[in-house]
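Explain this protein:
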Amino acid sequence: MRLCYVDESGKAETLVKTERDQQPVIVIAGVSLPEDQLTEITREWLDLKRRFYPDVASKLGGGWLDAILHDVKGANLRRGFRRNATRRQRKHAVGLVSGTLSIVEHHDGNLIGRIWVKQLNQPNDDMSIHSSSLQFICSAFNTQLSEERGMVVVDSQTYQHNHRLAHSMFTQRFGKHPRNTGLVDMPVFGHSDNHAGLQIADLLCSAVLAPIACAVYAGGYASWNRHCESGFLDIREEFGERLEALTFEIVNPRTAKPSRSVVVNDPIRKRGTHLMWAPGRASRTKPGTRRNVVITTTTSTKVVFPTTSTKVVFRRRSRRSRRLDRDS
């Protein structure tokens, strides 16, 4: 059995120039993980959080497992990739993102999701965006389930939002021509406080996918929107190949054409998803091809992530090259 944990980053509010802090993209994405490795995944995630936030358990006044209650805010973590970030902030951000990706890679995880680029002064239909995104995620996730079953766990919002979102899936699953029959039931809704999978999905949405998309597809808003930081292109340079390797090939249910499990809806310049992983050229990494980088941790398993003492080498490009990447 596989589990798909789904979270989001960004709101459907209308994008206007007077609001500098509005994120110009909406990311709704999930992480697909094997259920029989959930205990290992959870323990490795707790170990990673304790490495980068060593005082978490003591501050919460509990034991080792209480580290799950510490919320790692992706919006705060992405500050480490801004141009004015300190060396220490950059090292912390790179290490934590790399460790998170390593856990997903080590346990044969995958990325599935949709990224929506917002147009200036154009209203956005919140429920339509969420419903179509979840339908896409469930359809792509279902293609993985050849002989096993799957369950989708979505980060809970309001009752009304959850109710309408679940019903949009109910009509597909139990309609006249049932879809996504590999799923055991409707998506369920959970609170991230005690779901390692939801916390991992949240970090990848808000600290990785969203800032890359802001810099690449909404770079034209950079003069007035603080989320279109050109420094976020460094996230793509550092992790683009690894992110792409977590995607897989599907047949897009809307277009009936081959697609990746992560797609971008860019109404501004109609640019492709490949720009999420590399600038203006064909990708160097074949989907499903992953780096074999393993180091030993304090746990009995081997996971890939740098410790706080690991030297993180990060190449900073010139302003001109960043501008060319963003405009490509």
Residues 196-217 form the longest helix (22 residues). The chain has one domain: 2-327. The domain at 2-327 is CATH 3.30.420.10 (Nucleotidyltransferase; domain 5). The chain is about 35% helix and 15% strand.
